[in-house]
Every structure is written in structure tokens, then in C-alpha cells.
Specification:
Length: 102
């Protein structure tokens, strides 16, 4: 009795090209951030209330950002499209906070 081995040969035809790979270009819009900076003027309460109003933070988010700013010197408080962030940053500045869009 013999042992038979069966091998499966891939069914490829060298004359057939595989489906060409398509290069897809996507427009990736760079996200920007509002950076809030620490100062010695504004109270925690004012910063928190302003972030809730201007950046649509929850109280907890605004409070965390206020502490990060206090201890680290700065914090990214909002990320998004430039068209959305510039008016928000202006409102933060109008409220006496120190902020910039990057």
C-alpha cells in the first residue's frame, strides 16, 4: 500500500491581471484647537462658567480643564474646524480669558 499525497495547485492565470488597486485621495481637514492659558486674574468659577457657555462643556469637563490650566499652564479646551473655533475663542477673550487657536 502506498501513501498518496494530494496537493492543491492555485488556479492562477499569468495572463490575467489582478484587479488594479485604486488610489483614493481624501480631503483631510486639519483639526485645530483652542488653547486656554493660565492667568492670575480669573477665578475657577468664572473659567468654568465660561467654558460651559462658550465651549458647551459639561460642568465636570469645564472643571477638569480649569484644573489642568491651573496646574499645567494651559489646556486644549475645544477641538474642531477653524470656522467654529475662531468665534468661540473670541468669546473666551471677550470674557477676559487668555486663549488662542492653534
Amino acid at each position: 500500500m502506498g501513501c498518496h499525497r494530494f496537493y492543491q495547485i492555485a488556479n492562477t492565470n499569468p495572463k490575467e491581471d489582478p484587479a488594479p488597486e485604486l488610489e483614493v485621495e481624501t480631503a483631510v481637514e486639519k483639526e485645530h484647537q483652542i488653547i486656554l492659558f493660565n492667568d492670575d486674574v480669573n477665578t475657577f468659577q468664572h473659567v468654568i462658567e465660561t467654558l460651559v457657555q462658550v465651549c458647551e462643556h459639561t460642568f465636570e469637563q469645564a472643571e477638569q480643564c480649569a484644573y489642568i490650566v491651573h496646574y499645567s499652564g494651559k489646556c486644549a479646551v475645544k477641538t474642531g474646524r477653524l470656522e467654529d473655533l475662531i468665534p468661540r475663542c473670541s468669546l473666551l477673550l471677550d470674557a477676559g480669558l487668555s486663549a488662542e487657536v492653534v
